[in-house]
Amino acid sequence: DTGVSQNPRHKITKRGQNVTFRCDPISEHNRLYWYRQTLGQGPEFLTYFQNEAQLEKSRLLSDRFSAERPKGSFSTLEIQRTEQGDSAMYLCASSGGTVSYEQYFGPGTRLTVT
Amino acid sequence: GNSVTQMEGPVTLSEEAFLTINCTYTATGYPSLFWYVQYPGEGLQLLLKATKADDKGSNKGFEATYRKETTSFHLEKGSVQVSDSAVYFCALIIASGGSYIPTFGRGTSLIVHP
Q1: What is the DSSP pairing of strand B75-77 with strand B62-65?
Q2: A101: closest CA among B72, B23, B73, B96?
Q3: What is the Cα–Cα distance from A96 to A59, expressed in whole angstroms?
């Protein structure tokens, strides 16, 4: 088991550009989560998949953000028309437990919008 | 709704000192409780967990006991090391209605000096 991986690890983009991040969860995990984290804060929930179904999406999530998990394995998070306020660490986590539901996090993708 | 409150940081200690990081929660159901640790530039790592009242989670010398009567899950370590310097997050999950979305505290930064 190689754990959760995320690519790229760092992304610098200009305001107005689109960016896409990828997350590969632990292979047997059916739940996948995306979070955003800014300096000095805890992870902020963005969206959640169970298999390929997107079951919940934060009300705070702008419609510029979209996520997919087409085959119930890897997931992508796209941000369209990036803004400077989108600069943050984007974390992915997966979970498959039926008792305690702990999540396993990837290393994150740090986005800088200039 | 659900919430997690952690003590404000940073917590600054000398090596071999005793550590306590307080965590209290409010929850609409019966949560599982977690402590995660985040080292600079990395994602969150699960440190320990407890799934029912009076359970004690432990790992790498850290311990926390699920106290339902005081709705607390304080993190303790008897003798900290410089390598323990990181940010610690308390979290809860209530798996009700098929939703497995965790609630995180804001994190407590720990700085250990030699």
Answers
A1: antiparallel
A2: B96
A3: 25
The closest CB to that of B107, out of A42, A101, A110, belongs to A42
Q: In one letter, which amino acid is A16?
A: G
Residue A19: both structure tokens together: 């960016």
**Tokens 């979305």 sit on residue:** B101
Largest CA distance in chain B: 48
Assess contact for A64 and A80: CB atoms under 8 A.
yes
Is residue B105 within 8 A of residue B4, CB to CB? The reply is yes
Tell me whether B93 touches chain A (CB under 8 Å): yes
**Cβ-count burial of B113 within 10 angstroms (0-12 exposed, 13-18 middle, 19+ buried)?**
exposed
3-class secondary-structure state, position B83 = helix
The alpha carbon of B12 is separated from its chain's Cα centroid by a whole number of angstroms, namely: 17
User: What are phi and psi for residue A84, nearest 5 degrees?
Assistant: -60, -30
In this complex, is the C-beta atom of A43 within 8 Å of any C-beta atom belonging to chain B? Answer: yes
What would the pLDDT profile of B61-105 be if each residue is shown by its tens digit? 999 999 999 999 999 999 999 999 999 999 999 876 666 788 999
Q: Which among A85, A80, A63 has a CA at the least distance from the CA of A21?
A: A80
